[in-house]
C-alpha cells in the first residue's frame, strides 16, 4: 500500500469572513485602546511576532521544505509556499537592493482588508496589516535570521499596490545556542 | 518494543519532553557464596559492578535485587546498606540480580542535552538514533535499528509538537511540555503505524530463529497469518 512519506494532514477550514472580521475587530479594539498610530502598529507587530514564532514550526512540519541556501530562496518560499498555505494568495517577489538582502513582496490582493473601505480620519499612518510583518519577522527569527519587515506601500493609504519589504540583517548567531560538544 | 524513547530538546539544550517505552534489558540473577568474586562499588547512590565481568554480568551493571527483593538505591529492602550486607559472610549464600540500571531523570536530562557518544553506553546495545532539528529544537528518537519508518515517525512527532506549540496559547516556547499519560506521541510510537518493521532478510538457507534471532525473516513473516492491533494494549497480535 503506498502512503506518502510526508503525509499532508487535513486542514480544518474555517470561514474566511470569520477570520477577516476577527482581524478587523482586533485592529479596531487596538485603535480604541491606543491613541497613537505608532503604538497600534507596534502592538500589532508584537502580536505578529508571537504568532510567527509558533507558526514557523507548523509551516516547517507541513510544508517539508528543505534547507535554503540564499535569501532570495527564502523570500520565494515565503511568498509561494507560506502565503499560499495560510492566506491563499501568492505575492510576487522583487529584489530591491543590489547587495541581495532587501526584498519586497508585492500583494495585489490582500484578503485581510476585504471589508475595509478606508482608514479612519485620524489614523493616516496606521499599518492595518502590520500583524503580517510581525509574523514574518518572528518566523525568520526562529530559523536564526534577523530581518526587518515593514510596509513600504499600502493600498489603504492610497498607493497602487501593497508592498511588504523584508531586509535581512546579519544572520543570528546560531552557535550561541549550540551546546558545547 | 521497537521504539525505545523519544526526547524533545529545546534550543538551549534543556529537555522539554521525554517518553520511555519498555526497553528489554538484559538481567542476570545468580547465587553467590562468600567471598564475592565481583568487585562492587558505590556510584551515585547505586551499587555497580566495577570488576569481575562474567556470565552476563557486565561492568557497569547495577545491583537490582537481593534474594528476590528489589534494592532501593544503595540500601536493601530492609534498609541495610548493600555493601555492608554483602560484606558479611553470615548472609551468604545470596542471590543477586544484576542488570543495566534504570536511568534517573537527571541522567535522562544529561543524555538529552549533551548527546555524547559516551552516554550511548547507557542505551541498549542495539539501538539507532534519529535526530530532527529545524529551528534549533532537537527531536531524538531511539529505536531498534531494524525498525523502518522512523523518519516518518519523527515527522509525525514534529507535526504533533507544532500543533501543541500552536494550539495552546498558554504554552511558552522552550518550556517543558506536560502531557497526561503518553499522549499522541506514545500512541504513534507504540502503534508504529507507518510501516511494518522490515526485519533483516533471512539467509539463503533461512534458519529464521537461529543465530539468536527472535523474529522470522521477511519471507516467513509474509507467510504468517495477518497481524492486528489489540484494542486494549495497542500491541500487535497474530490472529
TrEMBL record, chain A:
Pfam families: TRAPP. Its main location: endoplasmic reticulum. CDD domains: TRAPPC3_bet3 (cd14942). It comes from the Eukaryota. The keyword Nuclease does not apply. SUPFAM superfamilies: Ligand-binding domain in the NO signalling and Golgi transport (SSF111126). It is found in: Endoplasmic reticulum; Golgi apparatus, cis-Golgi network. Transmembrane segments: none annotated. InterPro entries: Bet3, NO_sig/Golgi_transp_ligand-bd, TRAPP_component. Keywords: Endoplasmic reticulum, ER-Golgi transport, Golgi apparatus, Lipoprotein, Palmitate, Transport. GO terms for biological process: Golgi vesicle transport. One of its GO terms (cellular component) is TRAPP complex. Homodimer. Component of the multisubunit TRAPP (transport protein particle) complex, which includes at least TRAPPC2, TRAPPC2L, TRAPPC3, TRAPPC3L, TRAPPC4, TRAPPC5, TRAPPC8, TRAPPC9, TRAPPC10, TRAPPC11 and TRAPPC12. May play a role in vesicular transport from endoplasmic reticulum to Golgi. Belongs to the TRAPP small subunits family. BET3 subfamily. This is Trafficking protein particle complex subunit. The lineage of its organism: Eukaryota, Metazoa, Chordata, Craniata, Vertebrata.
UniProtKB/TrEMBL annotation, chain B:
Its main location: endoplasmic reticulum. InterPro entries: Longin-like_dom_sf, TRAPPC. GO terms for biological process: autophagy; dendrite development; endoplasmic reticulum to Golgi vesicle-mediated transport. It comes from the Eukaryota. Belongs to the TRAPP small subunits family. TRAPPC4 subfamily. Core component of the TRAPP complexes which has a function of guanine nucleotide exchange factor activity for Rab1 GTPase. Plays a role in vesicular transport from endoplasmic reticulum to Golgi and autophagy. May play a role in dendrite postsynaptic membrane trafficking. Part of the multisubunit transport protein particle (TRAPP) complex. This is Trafficking protein particle complex subunit. It comes from Propithecus coquereli. The lineage of its organism: Eukaryota, Metazoa, Chordata, Craniata, Vertebrata.
